[in-house]
Design goal:
Elements (H helix, E strand, L loop, with lengths): L2 H19 L6 H7 L1 H16 L5 H15 L2 E2 L4 E2 L4 E2 L6 E2 L4 E2 L4 E2 L4 E3 L11 E2 L4 E2 L4 E3 L3 E2 L4 E2 L4 E2 L8 E3 L4 E3 L18 H4 L1
Parallel strand pairs: 1-4, 2-5, 3-6, 4-7, 5-8, 6-9, 7-10, 8-11, 9-12, 10-13, 12-14
Antiparallel strand pairs: 14-15
Helix pairs in contact: 3-4
Length: about 200
């Protein structure tokens, strides 16, 4: 998609993605003016275009740092982000240089798509389409999170996550839908729940 028309279509998709994922969003105008995740994404889109020209990589990095200062969201201009990404709240989100994100992905605040290596090659995660990453989750290294997977809040993912699975915990355990859960703890004494209910 190229040209001004294509640019406006992508920007409109970003606004509509925010409205689709956030029931508090009342209008495109509100999203355009008040959503830092959208602002960071728009700055990334400009910085990424600069990044693709080797002589403009420094301006690309400077633009990404300005966006970080303004929004609290750091997206390296070398990352490859798909369409209709929504970053909810956004503060503390970090997306590394070799990260690849598919379409219709949702990231909550405090998410890190980071590396575990000092190698210059692929060192950040790849997320498929329709992936949701919960608040505070860390997806580290060149792992693959397949389509429709969900990463629970505060999970630390260091291994691949299959399509449609849920990853929770530190380190993350993979739960596949409709698979038996053999180690689920059972609380036989209801009185033990009182301290959590009060």
């Amino acid at each position: 998609m190229t040209g001004v028309r294509g640019l406006f279509q992508v920007l409109a998709e970003d606004l509509d993605a925010a409205r689709a994922h956030d029931p508090a969003a009342r209008s495109r105008l509100e999203v355009a003016l008040a959503y830092p995740g959208v602002h960071a994404l728009w700055a990334y889109r400009a910085a990424h275009r600069l990044w693709r020209v080797p002589s403009l990589r420094l301006p690309a990095r400077l633009l990404s740092q300005l966006a970080r200062a303004a929004t609290g969201i750091e997206i390296h201009p070398g990352a490859r982000l798909g369409r209709r990404l929504f970053i909810d709240h956004g503060m503390g989100v970090v997306i590394g240089e070799t990260t690849v994100v598919g379409d219709d992905v949702m990231l909550y605040h405090g998410v890190t798509l980071g590396g575990r290596s000092l190698n210059r090659g692929k060192r950040h995660p790849t997320l498929g389409d329709r992936v949701t990453v919960g608040a505070g989750a860390k997806v580290l290294g060149p792992v693959w999170v397949a389509d429709d997977a969900q990463i629970g809040a505060n999970a630390v993912v260091v291994k691949d996550v299959p399509a449609g699975a849920v990853a929770v915990g530190i380190p993350a355990r993979i739960r596949v839908p409709n698979a038996p859960v053999a180690d689920r703890p059972r609380n036989e004494d209801p009185s033990e729940l009182i301290e959590y209910v009060i």
